[in-house]
Amino acid sequence: MTTMITMYDVLRRPIVTEKSNYLNGMLHQYVFEVAENATKAMIRDAVETLFDVEVLKVNVINVTPKRTRRARSRRVLIRNKGYKKAIVTLAPDDTIDIFEGVK
Fold first, then answer.
1. Tens of pLDDT along 81-93?
2. CA-to-CA distance for 60 and 72, rounded, in angstroms?
């Protein structure tokens, strides 16, 4: 059973890493963690409505879960949860303020 998700549920959180900062600065791309059942059209509508920008392109990536080990007993395996992320390309004159930092 799938539940209807609203525009506010599509975008979970921004992903801020060195690579996403590079994409932001050079290519006008922003990275978000999104809901598992979100489509490209839903992501485009959510970003355009919430941040009042023009979206040119949306790329979606399913990030695979990773396995790690416990620190004490090296035997216990832990499986981190996978997630879905979206790389959103904006028009060259648009920006999203939450990624820009202190102004």
1. 999 999 999 999 9
2. 37
Residue 70: Cβ-neighbour burial (10 angstroms; 0-12, 13-18, 19+): exposed
Length of the chain: 103
Q: Sort strands 55-63 and 29-34 into parallel, antiparallel or unpaired.
A: unpaired
Dihedral sign (CA 63, 98, 22, 26): positive
Distance in angstroms (rounded) separating the CA atoms of residues 19 and 39: 23
Residue carrying structure tokens 């395996």: 77
In CATH, what number is assigned to the domain containing residue 65? 3.30.70.330
For residue range 24-41, what is the model confidence (pLDDT) as tens digits? 989 999 999 999 999 999
Domain carrying residue 73: 7-92
Residues 55 and 86: their CA atoms lie apart, in Å, by 12
Within-domain flag for 18? yes
Query: Does 52 have pLDDT greater than 90?
Result: yes
